[in-house]
TrEMBL record, chain A:
Record-linked PANTHER family: XANTHINE DEHYDROGENASE SUBUNIT C-RELATED
Tree of life domain: Bacteria
Name the record gives this protein: Xanthine dehydrogenase family protein subunit M
Record organism: Roseomonas alba
PROSITE patterns, per the entry: FAD_PCMH (PS51387)
Domain FAD-binding PCMH-type: 1-176
UniProtKB/TrEMBL annotation, chain B:
High-level lineage: Bacteria, Pseudomonadati, Pseudomonadota, Alphaproteobacteria, Acetobacterales
Keyword DNA damage annotated: no
Keywords: Molybdenum, Oxidoreductase
Protein name, per record: Xanthine dehydrogenase family protein molybdopterin-binding subunit
Xref: InterPro entries: Ald_Oxase/Xan_DH_a/b, Ald_Oxase/Xan_DH_a/b_sf, Ald_Oxase/xanthine_DH-like, AldOxase/xan_DH_MoCoBD1, AldOxase/xan_DH_MoCoBD2, AldOxase/xan_DH_Mopterin-bd_sf
Residue span, Aldehyde oxidase/xanthine dehydrogenase a/b hammerhead domain: 21-138
Length: 290, 780
């Protein structure tokens, strides 16, 4: 478990990093290293060049402006978890982060690293999908935006050209009074989720559901928005039966299989966690739960 | 139980000062100048013929010192196999594993070449440059299928996959079963994974060319065995080899085995004339360190109408792995543990050990006993349910009672020594656990919970464990001219406070200052003979030898001091580093001056009349095992939608005789309990149907961590064994033994509304859901 040889590069700016990406063959970016370093040590990744982003200026930071949360790619997961602004404006993300690895890994792990590693059960990617995030990507031609829905090309494959890098994520905020919940089922605290579910609800003045977001992690090759469930919810008065019916939409979704969990089990978990998340989000939207 | 000045008290551990400051010395901390590093090429196939190995490119890589195959080692070896099996008439195949595989590989991870390079990085680079042409052969992935008549052989030369078979029997089993209508049969699948000590294995070898001596530091529980085997294999004179066990980051069984890597690294140091280091990484650990894995039990219990046990019969199929790296002691220990807590008038169990294309199986903490207990306890739960008896009551009716002690069972140990339960009050121990967990009121709590839609359950399991396997452990105690007390032993410390334990026992007799006692464990240069760490034995055997040796030295100290101070021995006491007259502390002589007097002067008589030197060396022989016992009671809540099992309460009552250090006892038990929870719910060493391991990282193989530990309450009884002078029974493995059985019973109880039947461990959430609401085979 020792990495094969690679050349190490230490750019100071995004432009330098992008230039290195354009110039070097078989290069990988090093963010927090919580996934890449074990992959190097196990020799499942063999980059010839490692471009360390840890000293690149301007890649970290959290801002909330005009209803949009922006988080720099190199912002540590622990910083996001502890951000009062995010807890206030985007509590779904705060709740999801308590499930991300362990305190020690969150101290190093970054949001950009999670997005680009694109593990199917990654909590932060699920949250980004739930919140219709936009990914800011820098490349030789300048910067472009990628909608989160278009970001995963497939299993652990982000829609990035070899010379591109993620610099930030932008999240349009939900109204202050929305209800939210992030639930996941993992074998042990801090393990990869077998399935996770994110739910967001906004009620109108009559108490009906005005807007809903339902997202599953760990089921498909990338986080899935369950639009059938969202459609079933919007315009309806929230009841346990409604949530049960909406959650049932998850049972037919094609699910991954691995030695931990067969597909049928993931489908069941998806429905159970979606229902529980919706109930929790509703309780929060009505102020009945913290 | 009366505590001494040190023995029986929670004194500070002597290990802590170094370990807490990061100043321990583990095998990877040993880095002699000129060190080179080793990596092993390991088979990616579970079973394959080796057609060709080409190491030319690897050898040419800059920084690579050598790439060696068995053919390169053969001229320097007296044997190319490790002949390590414990004696037993049960073997049907000779499965001595090779130093390196040469013509055939029989499990993923089996080593077939070794690279020695300037760094481990380069060594791993070179591994990738070795070309091996394999011809894959059919693999045996499952112990049950291995014994089918049409099963492919796990070794191409073997006529079958039956590694060993034996029957453990007494009483007229057939008559007993024929005479009662109350018969209960179960088929149980019991899996245990590995031990996963925090520190993997490792070896450093240093050849001193000036004196032609080889020192081998190995993360082994048995340095004396390693020395014997390296001497044998390399044809070395014993005076030329020293094997040392440095600080160990856990052993838990697999490190008691002698491994190919130990002899290869030792030989490489001699061949290269450079110190050589091999540190096993976690991926290697998953495929090359021994494990315990699978057993299938087809068992039947006969009782009378009141639930009194009449007999037990059945057969056990055991996954032996590809080689005999220790013996048949795991299944034998499993079967021996099965009836032990209870009065079982007739018993017959057949054991068949099946060869599979997997890492060899050898003991992991518990060494088969958790499986035997699981089988017995599952049968008792089944009988209680069908007879309409309370599950604790059927146990109470059958437990060996205090009035029966000592209770001679018809069983014998693997060495032919009669199994006699020496002491204890098993029914009272069970009652303590039941009272603590609130067994009597549980049915009502369960009813209330169920009305709220919560599924809670309770379970209980008993065990009796043979501890302190003999015959002896060496301990020497010597007072040096400095006044320091040196203790050396063949016992090997692997993190279980062995040095503290010995320092306590010796200092108890020699001044009660543990800081004045230096304990050397696991060093063949310090102890001429030794057996090492296994079988919850070191406190029992080394502790007894230390106690007797310390008493002898004390006697001599007092005799010499008496003569020097001109007082009777009986008027003296040893306090810290001096011997003084009771009631007149100023009238004293130091241990240092006594030691100097005992060392003699040319032409002068040694005082005390007991000969020269202030030392004693002991190997107290204790053949019979000391039987410890205990009860685990678990309460769980099951989430019937996700299958998650939460252990809400766990009570462990036990009797290890006299506790030398109560906090260390608690710590040992707690570690065992965590391991038992892992075996019940988490740890699963998975292989696919081609015997490819598929859980080879700690993200896939789930060890219990602090966040999975429930509240645990440990209750103690102290029935000293008459078998050793300190009255102690071993405790290193106890915690693990009854836990899977108790948790399985509790889950089954929680799911009683669904008529669930738990007949396997570990139980994953998927397994739990499948018991409640089975998904048809083949459905999505």
């Amino acid at each position: 478990m020792k990495p094969a040889g690679f050349a190490y590069h230490d750019p100071q700016t995004v432009a330098e990093a992008v230039a290195l990406l354009g110039r070097l063959e078989n290069a990988r970016l090093l963010a927090g290293g919580q996934s890449l370093m074990p992959m190097l040590a196990m020799r499942v990744a063999f980059p010839d060049h490692l471009i360390d982003l840890n000293r690149v200026e301007g890649l970290d930071g959290i801002t909330v402006e005009q209803g949009v949360l922006r988080i720099g790619a190199m912002t540590r997961q622990r910083s996001i978890e502890r951000s009062a602004a995010i807890r206030e404006a985007c509590p779904l993300m705060t709740e999801a982060l308590t499930h991300v690895g362990h305190l020690q890994t969150r101290n190093r792990g970054t949001i950009g690293g999670s997005l680009c590693h694109l593990d199917p059960s990654a909590e932060l990617v699920t949250v980004a999908a739930a919140l219709d995030a936009t990914i800011e990507v820098a490349g030789p031609e300048g910067q472009r935006d990628v909608a989160i829905a278009d970001f995963p090309l497939g299993f652990m494959t982000p829609a990035l050209a070899p010379e591109e890098m993620v610099v930030a994520i932008r999240i349009p905020l939900w109204p202050r009074e929305h209800g939210y919940s992030f639930m996941e089922f993992a074998r042990r605290h801090g393990d990869y989720a077998i399935v996770s579910a994110a739910a967001l609800l906004v009620l109108d003045s009559a108490g009906r559901i005005a807007r809903a977001s339902v997202t599953l992690g760990g089921v498909g090759a990338a986080p899935l928005r369950v639009t059938t469930a969202e459609t079933a919810l919007v315009g309806e008065a929230p009841t346990p039966a409604l949530f049960r019916a909406a959650a049932a939409c998850c049972e037919g979704i094609e699910a991954m299989e691995d030695p931990q969990a067969p597909a049928w089990y993931r489908q069941r978990l998806a429905a159970v966690l979606t229902r529980r998340a919706l109930e929790r989000a509703w309780a929060r939207a009505t102020g009945e739960a913290a | 139980m009366n505590a001494g000045r040190l023995v029986g008290r929670d004194v500070a551990r002597v290990e802590d000062a170094a370990l807490i400051r990061g100043r321990g010395r583990f095998v990877d901390d040993i880095a002699p100048a000129g060190l080179v590093h080793v990596a092993f090429l390991r088979s990616p196939h579970a079973h394959a013929r080796i057609l060709r190995i080409d190491v030319a490119v690897a050898r040419a890589l800059p920084g690579v010192h050598a790439v060696l195959l068995l053919d390169d080692l053969r001229p320097h070896l007296t044997d190319t196999r490790l002949v390590v099996a414990l004696p037993s008439p049960s073997y049907r195949l000779d499965l001595h594993r090779p130093v390196l595989a040469e013509t055939e590989v029989v499990h993923v991870g089996e080593a077939l070449a070794v690279v020695i390079a300037e760094s481990r990085y380069l060594a791993e680079d070179a591994l990738a440059l070795i070309e091996v042409e394999y011809e894959p052969l059919p693999a045996v992935a499952d112990c049950d299928n291995a014994l089918a008549p049409d099963a492919p052989p796990a070794h191409s030369w073997a006529s079958s996959n039956l590694a060993a078979e034996m029957t453990v029997a007494y009483g007229d089993v057939e008559a007993v079963f024929a005479a009662t209508p109350h018969r209960f049969a179960e088929t149980l699948h019991i899996h245990r994974g590995g031990s996963h000590s925090m520190e993997c294995r490792g070896v450093v070898a240093l050849h001193d060319v000036v004196e032609d001596r080889l020192t081998v530091w190995s993360s082994t529980q048995t340095p004396h065995t390693a020395k014997r085997l390296i001497c044998d294999l390399l044809g070395m004179d014993e005076t030329r080899l020293r094997v040392v066990t440095p600080d160990l980051g856990g052993g838990f069984g697999p490190k008691l085995i002698f491994y190919p890597e130990e002899v290869v690294v030792a030989l490489a140091a001699r061949l290269l004339g450079r110190p050589v280091k091999w540190i096993e990484d976690r991926q290697e650990h998953f495929v090359s360190t021994t494990q315990e894995r699978d057993q299938t039990w087809r068992v039947e219990l006969a009782t009378d109408a009141e639930g009194h046990i009449l007999g037990v019969r059945g057969d056990l199929v055991h996954d032996h792995g590809a080689w005999t790296a220790r013996g048949v002691n795991v299944p034998q220990g499993a079967v021996a543990a099965m009836p032990l807590a209870y009065v079982v008038p007739a018993f017959r169990m057949t054991i068949r050990a099946a060869v599979t294309n997997k890492v060899p199986v050898t003991p992991v903490r518990g060494a088969g006993q958790p499986q035997g207990v699981f089988a017995m306890e599952r049968l008792l739960d089944r009988a209680a349910r069908e007879l309409g008896l309370d599950r604790a009551e059927i146990r109470r009716r059958n437990l060996v009672s205090a009035e029966h002690m000592p209770y001679a069972t018809p069983l014998k140990t693997r060495g032919g020594i009669p199994v006699t339960l020496d002491s204890g009050d098993y029914p009272r121990c069970q009652q303590m656990a039941l009272d603590e967990i609130g067994w009597a009121g549980f049915a009502e709590r369960q009813r209330v919970a169920l009305a709220e839609g919560r599924y809670i359950g309770i379970g209980v399991a008993n065990y009796v464990e043979g501890t302190g396997r003999g015959p002896f452990e060496h301990v020497s105690v010597r007072v040096e001219p400095s006044g320091r007390i040196m203790v050396a032993t063949g016992a090997a410390a692997m993190g279980q406070s062995t040095r503290t334990m010995l320092a306590q026992i010796v200092a108890e007799q020699l001044g009660a200052n543990m800081a004045n006692v230096e304990v050397i464990t696991g060093d063949t240069a310090a102890a001429p003979i030794g057996i090492g760490g296994s079988n919850s034995r070191q406190a029992v055997l080394a502790g007894s030898s230390a106690h007797v040796a310390a008493l002898k030295v004390r006697e001599k100290v007092l005799a010499i001091a008496g003569e020097m101070l001109e007082v009777a021995m009986g008027d003296l006491e040893i306090e810290d580093k001096v011997v003084r007259v009771k009631g007149a502390p100023g009238h004293s002589v130091t241990l240092a001056s006594i030691a100097r007097a005992a060392a003699g002067q040319p032409g002068f008589v040694i005082p005390g009349g007991r000969g020269p030197g202030l030392a004693a060396s002991e190997e107290v022989v204790i053949d019979a095992m000391a039987y410890a016992n205990g009860t685990a009671a678990a309460e769980v809540e099951v989430d019937i939608e996700t299958g998650a099992v939460t252990i809400t309460r766990l009570v462990f009552s036990h009797d290890c005789g006299r506790a030398l250090h109560p906090r260390i006892v608690d710590g040992q038990l707690m570690g065992g309990i965590a391991h038992g929870i892992g075996n019940a719910l988490y740890e699963h060493m998975r292989f696919d149907d081609q015997a490819q391991p598929i859980s080879t990282t700690l993200a896939d193989y789930l060890l219990v961590t602090a966040t999975e530990m429930p509240p645990v309450r440990i209750l103690h009884m102290h029935s000293p064994t008459p078998l050793n002078p300190l009255g102690i029974k071993g405790v290193g493995e106890a915690g693990v033994i009854p836990i899977p059985a108790a948790i399985a019973a509790a889950v089954e109880d929680a799911l009683s509304p669904f008529d669930a039947h738990v007949c396997r461990v570990p139980l994953s959430p998927v397994d739990v859901i499948a018991m409640i609401d089975p998904v048809p085979e083949g459905s999505a």
